[in-house]
Amino acid sequence: MFRMLGILVFVIAIIKFVLPLILAGIIGTAIYVSAQSEQQQENKQQQSKEYKTIKIGNQVLMSENLNYNVTGSKCYKNNPKNCTRCGRLYDWSTAKNACPQGWRLPTSNEWKVLASNAGFSSLTCGYGTADGNFYNFSNYSYWWSSSEKNFNNAYFLSIDDNGNVHRNHLDKNLLFSVRCVKN
């Protein structure tokens, strides 16, 4: 009984010390998300993943690209090793619904703030096209925003291998990476 009481006191002390540091953003946190879709039965290991997060201002952002296998997504050059390194690439329509429950695509304006922060980092991962071509793996990363320009185009953010940030709009059928922001 005394041993259980000692363990309980230890756990309470840890919670009192660590929880305020997490809430203050001093200690980074990781989240465990489980994607919800009809493909869930097909491959549970690929759909459930722990994603690292970063707090930038008052936003919590995944600090790695989404890697959720869903129709409308592909690995760069259809190579699973690229999904392991960079996550999957999504067309805009799929990207809008790919984030786990409680998460969403950042808006174009949110991306402007998030990507200009010193805590934001990325690997160059390129992009794909609807006809199966892939480009810029070593030079750029591209992420969809939730912001739509018009019927055919949506806004995205890209970062080149020199760290330069670009925001623009392109065809919604292109395949870009996804990072989700917490609601």
* SSE topology string: HEHEEEHEHEHEEEEEE
Overall 3D form: globular
Q: What helical percentage do the residues reach? A: 25-40%
Distance separating the two termini: 43 Å
Count every beta strand, where a strand is a DSSP E run of 2 or more residues.
12
What does the radius of gyration come to?
19 Å
Which secondary-structure class do the elements indicate?
alpha+beta
List unreliable stretches of 5+ residues.
1-24, 31-46
Strand content bin: 25-35%
Task: Report the biggest beta sheet as strand number plus sense, adding barrel if it closes.
Answer: 3 strands, antiparallel
Overall average pLDDT: 81
Number of helix segments?
5
Give the total of domains.
Answer: 1
